[in-house]
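This entry is listed as follows:

___
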Amino acid sequence: MGDKQIQLTIHWDSKSHQKLDFYNFYWKKPTGLNSLQDSINLGSDNSVHWYGGMNTHEQSWPIKKNDYKSTEFVTNDVYQTGVTGQERYWLSSKKVVLNVPWSVPLYTSLQNNELGLQSKLDEDSSFLLRNNFLEYTLAVPKEWDKISLKDFHQECFELFLAAPTAHPSLEIINKPIWSTWANFWKAVDQNGLLEYAKQISDNNMPISQLELDDMWTVSYGDYQIDKRKFSNFSEMLKKLENEFGIKRLSAWVHPFVDADSEIGKNPELRNKLFVKNRDGDVPHVWWWDCPVKPGDPSKPVGPTNPDKKEPCAYVLDVTNPETREWWYKQLEALKAEGICTFKFDAGEINWLPHNYVLYDGAYPNSYGKHYAHFASRFGSAVENRYGSGTQQTNFFTRTIDRNSYWDKDGGLSTLIPWALQSSLHGYYWNLPDMIGGNGLNHNESNIRGEPPEEELYIRWTQSNTLLLAMQFSYPPWHSKYGGEVLNIVKKSLELRKKWMHYLIKNVRKAVEDKVPPMWWASDDNEALTIDDQFMVGSDLVVAPVIKSGQKTRNVYLPEGNWRNGNNVSEVVIGPTTIKDYPSPLDVLPHFYRTDSDDSGNGSSSIFGSPMGLFCSIISIIISLYFLN
């Protein structure tokens, strides 16, 4: 072939794996051509379903509803870009896996049931290596009819991805986190925090750790507790423990340093610590606490007249070991003052300066990988937002802020699909963020919102009840709510307590077996499309209500005998779909296998049953594999 021809090499590998065949596609473009593009038809009927790839703000499961235009496959804040790329792994229900290596400067799109793959050289690109090729691998089973979808995924998973090597803090699984974020926004201070702790204690609510969120330092980047807001920090910590039984205080941190902070104004540190551009300069970046000014007031508001984001900060280059050690010392000093652990925020590529250059990172997502590994130095009670290639860490990876909506737009309906997507990619330890969302549906700017309506708050609590972790901010005794909200939340927490031993057994087994805590229990086509229920292990089906005003719902049960968790005298034989299961506001629909219950008096008996422990082998009602 001549220099101006596109070269395609297809390598068929049928010998390296006992159960799988691989087809590697390698496209090379000639000099002068800046992009190569291929597309995969995802199927137009309802018999083919795809999972994985990009996460989107309006996450769906399967992904064919996640339409988006051509976008760099790198991590992004979905509030800014709508999509984020964590792992380049896609799975088809027809037992095909697509994997794209990180060496490819990949752009993807999902439109009209087609997944677009594009390798592009662009001066404005985030990709640091100027690779001139498009490469991807398709994996298929050697014997299609002799392997389940679950087992096929596990074979591919071990080759292309990774699983955790240890579990996160069991204390956080056992008891909820309580955060100041949505409830206080930036207005938190010592008196407010102590009053919040008192309310948690007075209402007999369980708590693993109290999370101090935005605006507790002197300025962003100066890691000093603001004495104007917290006049006696050590005394406050004593009161939290001695009067309210709260032993762990975590604090919100991020990689941004305000330009007018003491650290930001230090030229020596500025040149050592922060991300530089290709010219060797240290430019300002914009992040969500920087100013936003309206566009031209003489023109109509819209895409052609956008708001103006004013950069105001620098961003730490966590790929630089000198930066990591400097930051580590800052955070260790805060631990010496009594802060137990940290909530690490941001870490996505879109926060880096234009034409950035990392100290150590061949690929854009190297930044998030270093960031997550840095966070892991602070233990298993850490909360992190993003990583890439960091599944082996033992902390919670948080679903990015959810909005206080019911349907899509980052609302309740996206909670389970996001967690399923995370689990597919190996991020088992999912923290589903604040119960009820952050209130931002009431305003579009970065100012304090309002709590969600009662019904949404209750249904959100129920959706979280049997997931891996729970996190409250808006309290169920908020002045906006009546007493019914608190009563139903307490009922949900009692249900969680009954199943806690089973949850933890599955978490431990996931580490041992390298299988996600929730997975497919059936290749049935109906199960493959369910996006609003999930299984914990193989024995517990959970089907929360996620639609406004809904008082009944359909519940899918895989093969087996299932006892109704809300009416233990009722047993249902699966596979079947229960139509119009009664779901009044105080009811969380859930079923458990009868062969895991040797006393017949409810879910708590599963913990004493050898069969119950043995059967914590992990699987899910397809659409829902997710203790994470």
Q: What stands out?
A: The mean pLDDT is 90.
